[in-house]
Design brief:
Layout (H helix, E strand, L loop, with lengths): L4 E3 L6 E3 L2 E2 H8 L3 E5 H15 L5 E6 L6 H10 L2 E4 L2 H9 L7 E3 L6 H10 L3 E4 L2 H14 L3 E8 L21 E2 L3 H10 L3 E7 L10 H19 L6 E3 L16 H19 L5 E4 L3 H4 L3 E13 L2 E6 L8 H5 L5 E3 L8 E7 L8 E9 L5 E4 L20 E6 L2 E6 L4 H5 L6
Parallel strand pairs: 4-20, 5-6, 5-13, 6-7, 7-8, 8-9, 9-10, 9-11, 11-12, 12-13, 15-17
Antiparallel strand pairs: 1-2, 2-3, 4-14, 14-15, 14-19, 16-19, 17-18, 20-21
Helix pairs in contact: 2-3, 2-9, 5-6, 6-7, 8-9
The chain binds pyridoxal-5'-phosphate.
Length: 425
């Protein structure tokens, strides 16, 4: 977790950026996502400072990790651009006052409506993921008479050594265009009057703890840029994606400062060797900006024993935090205040949803009682953005802490919210 999460040495209570988490649970109810603005700021600056003075670099925050508009506002104020994958995410950038020209639009299935919306909003670049998409983009751009900047997202076929569901740079993954096909996709763009070849993009996966796949991917991307150059297609912008991991348990992911300067140095070496100008660069981090800047607070509804098995049934569930059910991923779970009268026991922490896959943590030794509040750590990324209304449960509220002061930035969904879209009742 971020250093903003601290245990008071006298009371043993957890505070996040100085705000007492138990009090926040009392004030705003649970389940509750709580974010530290300072933790987000420090994580973003870790990227910005790692590149400072080395090259012209934009950090495009990957909105899918956490799309709360207040966080987007904060990141825009720090100078971030955005990586988005839907018209809805673009609407969030606009609502946050972000600059659409500093946004890139990725995703394998952009609809005509998505493309029209993004072109009219002035999105900086489309990261195109197939030949068919390039054709569609050209048609829409021509019809609207708005020129589209394009990068091709290439699939370098490198193993990111991460969970198979978040590995994206292997040829069996649906993402990007293969190295073999990319030249013809570029050729179409180059010949099209309403498409402007801007750069090349690649993102190989998420929660990377080993930096070596980045270098393998970069080498392949540079090889393709050379090949395109020989074909008369000049690429002066490289977008190297996101993916740096965070510590959920005992992982040792690299810091941006351990990876970005070396990647930039490798690009500079290549540019010098080829007598080319240094390309501009972009990165698209999501998880490593917000993951450890958020916790999910949940209250114990019941403790239940099925013979030797002990369950803590809490009020958060897989619909609030999908990652354990989806990837069997680990989140540390701790009480926000010690309970001196409870005895330690091994619990599976489970939610109220009617699925055996609805668990948040397994075999955790905790001293807890009914009514206690637990903090699920490292929940700032792919938490609320992956939440659903499964079992007709309203989505959790979100609180942002700024200089120790807590502010409700998204209210809890109500029963009325759940029923509102259904017609003819
Ligand atoms: N860029 C693209 C194209 C992605 O698909 C993703 C995540 O899936 C990201 C960036 C962000 O990855 P991460 O949150 O691991 O940094």
């Amino acid at each position: 977790m971020s250093e903003q999460l601290q245990t008071d040495p006298n009371t043993g209570r957890l505070a996040f950026e100085g705000a007492d988490l138990h009090s926040l649970a009392e004030q705003f109810g649970t389940p509750l996502y709580v974010y530290s603005a300072e933790a987000v700021r420090q994580a973003y600056l870790g990227y910005a400072q790692a590149c400072e003075g080395l090259a012209e670099v934009t950090i495009h925050y990957a909105i899918k990790a956490n799309s709360n508009i207040h966080l987007l506002k904060l990141l825009a104020s720090l100078g971030a651009g955005f990586d988005l994958v839907s018209a809805g995410e673009l609407a969030r950038v606009l609502a946050a006052g972000g600059n659409p020209a500093k946004a890139v639009f990725a995703g394998v299935g952009k609809s005509v409506a998505d493309i029209e919306y993004a072109l009219k909003a002035g999105v900086g670049c489309f990261n195109v993921e197939s030949a068919a998409e390039m054709v569609r983009l050209g048609e829409v751009a021509q019809r609207l008479q708005i020129k589209a900047n394009v990068s091709v997202r290439v699939n370098p076929d490198v193993d990111a050594k991460t969970h198979p569901y978040i590995s994206t740079g292997l040829k069996e993954n649906k993402f990007g265009v293969s190295m073999a096909v990319a030249p013809s996709v570029y050729a179409h763009a180059q010949a099209h009057p309403w498409l402007n070849v801007h750069g090349i993009d690649c993102h190989i996966g998420s929660q990377l703890t080993d930096p070596s796949p980045y270098f393998d991917a970069l080498d392949r991307v540079l090889g393709l840029v050379d090949q395109l150059s020989a074909q008369g297609i000049q690429i002066d912008h490289l977008d190297l994606g996101g993916g740096i991991g965070i510590r959920y348990r005992d992982e040792n992911p690299p810091k941006p400062a351990d990876v970005l300067p070396q990647l930039i140095a490798r690009v500079r070496q290549w540019a010098q060797a080829k007598g080319r100008p240094m390309p501009t660069l972009a990165f698209e981090p999501g998880r490593s900006i917000v993951g450890n800047a958020g916790v999910l607070l949940t209250r114990v509804e019941f403790l239940k024993n099925n013979e030797d098995k002990h369950f803590a049934i809490v009020d958060a569930a897989m619909n609030d935090l999908m990652r354990p059910a989806m990837y069997e991923s680990f989140h540390a779970i701790v009480p926000v205040a010690p309970n001196p009268t409870a005895t330690a026991q091994d619990y599976d922490i489970v939610g109220p949803v009617c699925e055996s896959g609805d668990w948040l943590g397994r075999n955790r030794t905790l001293s807890i009682a009914q009514g206690d509040v637990l903090a699920i750590l490292s929940a700032g990324a792919y938490g609320l953005t992956m939440a659903s209304n499964y079992n007709s449960r309203g989505r959790a509220a979100e609180v942002l802490i700024e200089q120790g002061k807590a502010r409700l930035v998204r209210r809890r969904e109500t029963i009325e919210d759940l029923l509102a879209p259904e017609l003819g009742l």
